[in-house]
């Protein structure tokens, strides 16, 4: 990456290269909610933890009146603020009222951190498709660009179908296929030609 050439990877997937040294991110696909000169924020979409949405809602004293969501897993979103929930979901219809704290990703999804989205889901409404994480992935200014330049990640335009319609164990390969890449063909070693 050339210095001074700003890149914006908002609404893209970061796909960990097979040789990713950081075990926390090995095999990860991250949906980037925001990327600018101050840094980046994303949610890992393919690392479920041992908590279901039903369990999570019970922990915050809410019922979950959406049976199709009850057994869905909560995901490890990243190592930052792991006690806090992040809800990745479809954009709300234009006539719907928004939530207290939502980041709308341009041409992408919404990411909400306020309890009101959980309350809406508990009442049987709220967004149609959701992925809920504990924690997020964050990079300081220039940090993600540095990791990209060292071949730590691949990036590609995000496809909501990978997040919401693809079984978790297939998300990494499906994200790679958006680039036309078969993961088995990639080397474990990073390098530059």
- Largest sheet geometry: 10 strands, mixed
What would you call the structural class? Answer: alpha+beta
Distance between the termini: 14 Å
User: Fraction of residues in helices?
Assistant: 10-25%
Secondary-structure blueprint of this entry?
Blueprint: E1 12-16, E2 29-36, E3 39-44, E4 48-52, H1 53-59, H2 67-70, E5 73-76, E6 80-89, E7 102-104, E8 110-112, H3 115-122, E9 130-140, H4 143-149, E10 153-157, H5 160-164, H6 171-177
Give a verbal description of the structure.
Strands 1, 2, 3, 4, 5, 6, 7, 8, 9 and 10 form a 10-stranded mixed sheet that branches. By secondary structure, this protein is of the alpha+beta class. The model has no long low-confidence stretch (mean pLDDT 89). The chain has a single domain, classed as VC0467-like. Helices cover 20% and strands 31% of the residues.
């Amino acid at each position: 990456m050339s210095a001074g050439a700003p890149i914006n990877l908002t609404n893209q997937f970061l796909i960990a290269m097979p040789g990713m040294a950081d075990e926390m991110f090995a095999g990860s696909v991250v949906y980037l909610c925001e990327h600018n000169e101050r840094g980046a924020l994303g949610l890992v979409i393919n690392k479920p933890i041992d908590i279901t949405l039903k369990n999570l809602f019970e922990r915050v004293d809410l019922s979950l009146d959406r049976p199709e969501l009850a057994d869905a897993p909560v995901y490890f979103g990243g190592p930052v603020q792991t006690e806090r929930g992040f809800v990745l979901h479809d954009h709300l219809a234009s006539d719907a009222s928004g939530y207290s704290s939502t980041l709308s990703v341009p041409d992408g999804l919404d990411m909400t951190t306020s309890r009101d989205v959980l309350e809406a889901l508990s009442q049987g409404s709220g967004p149609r498709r959701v992925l809920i994480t504990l924690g997020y992935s964050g990079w300081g200014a220039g940090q993600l660009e540095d990791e990209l330049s060292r071949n730590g990640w691949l990036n590609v335009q995000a496809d909501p179908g990978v997040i919401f319609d693809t079984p978790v164990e297939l998300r990494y390969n499906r994200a790679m296929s958006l680039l036309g890449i078969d993961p088995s063909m990639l080397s474990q070693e990073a390098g530059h030609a």
